[in-house]
Amino acid sequence: xxxxxxxxxxxxQRTFSAKPINNELLSQLITTAxxxxxxxxxxxxxxxxxxxxxxxxxxxxxxxxxxVQQNGHLLIxxxxxxxxxxxxxxxxxxxxxxxxxxxxxxxVEDATLATQNLVTAAESRGLGTVFLGSALNDAAKVIELLHxxxxxxxxxxxxxxxxxxxxxxxxxxxxxxxxxxxxYQEPTTYTAALTDYQxxxxxxxxxxxxxxxxxxxxQVIRGALTSKHPRRELLTILHQQGFLNE
Length: 246
Ligand SMILES: Cc1cc2nc3c(=O)[nH]c(=O)nc-3n(C[C@H](O)[C@H](O)[C@H](O)COP(=O)(O)O)c2cc1C
Prior knowledge:
Blueprint: H1 3-8, H2 23-34, E1 45-50, H3 53-63, E2 73-80, H4 82-90, H5 101-124, E3 128-132, H6 139-145, E4 152-161, H7 175-178, H8 191-207, H9 217-225, H10 234-240
Antiparallel strand pairs: 1-2, 2-4, 3-4
Helix pairs in contact: 2-5, 3-6
The structure holds flavin mononucleotide.
């Protein structure tokens, strides 16, 4: 499949067959992840494969998502300036700048770009994936379970596996809402496009084969604002992990 077509066909996969991903394929996916661009080439991220069943259940409990207990290979993606700080100290350098907002953001960017590379590579091989931001529902627990040192921060999980069933394609916002020219445009300037999108998304939610419901984009925003897991402690945890202490 053409790469653009592959990307336009992306959908998250939450149910996987019992067929495991072999280690060679997993290594290939990690290699492809690593070829993503990286700020100052610091490659400031790590992937942690969760293979211990007890640990898997503990992390699944943090996500509160039952499908995480099932099939698929679980990775936890970590923003990681610890490795760079250690290597800096080994050559007698002060690593303080690696903890600043600039380098924290870059580590999130590096990790996310690498993970998206991995997702695209996985999909090109017939695998499905789902990001798990819900791994941060109890970030302190994940830090403890994985022994994450200072200057690391878990960002999300990623489940990868052979799809069991297929989801419908989820319609995205219209281009007018996300692509501006020479400056920002308020939503009030593309109201008609948004109204069309509300209808399109409503139809998608009503017709989809799993978890069909009455919803539109307003409902998506409302859901985010009334989440059971607002994760308000994350700034404190970032400070505890040594980040953003300028
Ligand atoms: C950072 C991030 C965190 C996410 N966390 C979760 C999650 O915890 N559980 C889940 O089921 N889906 C999660 N998703 C998947 C989104 O719900 C999904 O990408 C979005 O609804 C669009 O659907 P699609 O990927 O099927 O096109 C996450 C996606 C991203 C990018």
